[in-house]
Amino acid sequence: GILTLGGSDSAYYKGGFTYIPVTDGYWQFIINRIEGEHFTWCDRGCRGILDTSVWKII
């Protein structure tokens, strides 16, 4: 994966950004779908949080 701090690189995404407020100390967002070569997650959508103190999206 790629983590870009302080900006964005349009080579790694399609579409635009949706800005959301921070709630309960976490960056919360809607995941529409996650696809890999041999898998699909959150096909019907799910919520995620980003905790910058760990290496993963929960």
TrEMBL record:
Write down what this protein is called: Cathepsin D
Annotated Peptidase A1 domain ranges read: 1-52
InterPro entries linked:
PEPTIDASE_A1, Peptidase_aspartic_dom_sf
